[in-house]
Design brief:
Elements (H helix, E strand, L loop, with lengths): L10 E4 L12 E8 L2 E6 L3 E6 H7 L11 E4 L3 E10 L9 E3 L3 E4 L2 H9 L6 E10 L3 H5 L5 E4 L3 H7 L5 H8 L15
Parallel strand pairs: 5-9
Antiparallel strand pairs: 1-2, 1-10, 2-3, 3-9, 4-5, 6-8, 6-9, 7-8
């Protein structure tokens, strides 16, 4: 079996000392990565003071039966654009199955379905995304900055609080981030 060089369906964990405060302790669910570039949704931090009910109200969608939930900081690109990472038991007009691990939807139909209780059984909402151009993430992966990990997507996305995902990701990889240097080595 050949191993893909692409990271779709994996998680990126920001290494200590990544050098960009926007990504400090970030956990990114990689939704797409190929020769044309990459797109991921941040799942390691929520936006203070913003809940799902606020987002639904701004979109003129009645919250219906859905409980209020935190909204995640998906990344620094297009921070007003929303995404829903969710279980595969629901699909809409633009739903992307991510390597059989989870699904990504970015249109209002998923939020409407969640609000009335007919959407996916498990989900999280994010604003913004992290994006890389062709070859950009591949180059970043050769330098100090990111650790890619495979893991139990169901657990990481829906079973672990956002604030704990970074440390849980390192633990799943068998790495204690407290023991990592904040600088890359040089020869």
């Amino acid at each position: 079996m050949t191993q893909s060089i692409y990271l779709t369906g994996q998680f990126l964990l920001a290494m200590p000392g990544i050098g960009d405060p926007r990504f400090d302790r970030s956990v990114i669910a990689m939704c797409s990565h190929d020769e044309r570039g990459a797109l991921g949704i941040g799942i390691g931090a929520t936006i203070n003071g913003l809940g799902l009910h606020d987002v639904l109200q701004q979109l003129e969608i009645a919250p219906g039966v859905v409980p209020d939930a935190p909204v995640h900081f998906g990344g620094p690109v297009e921070t007003r654009r929303g995404f829903v990472l969710h279980s595969a038991d629901w699909g809409g007009q633009d739903t992307l199955n991510v390597a059989g691990q989870w699904c990504l939807s970015g249109t209002l139909d998923v939020l409407r379905a969640i609000a009335v209780g007919t959407g996916p059984s498990r989900w999280l909402v994010a604003l913004g995304y992290a994006g890389w151009g062709a070859g950009q993430l591949d180059a970043e992966m050769t330098r100090h900055g990111w650790l890619n990990v495979e893991g139990d997507a169901e657990e990481m996305l829906f079973g672990v609080p956002a604030a704990d995902r970074w440390s849980r990701g390192f633990a799943a990889a068998g790495v204690d981030p407290r023991l990592l240097s904040v600088e890359a080595g040089h020869s």
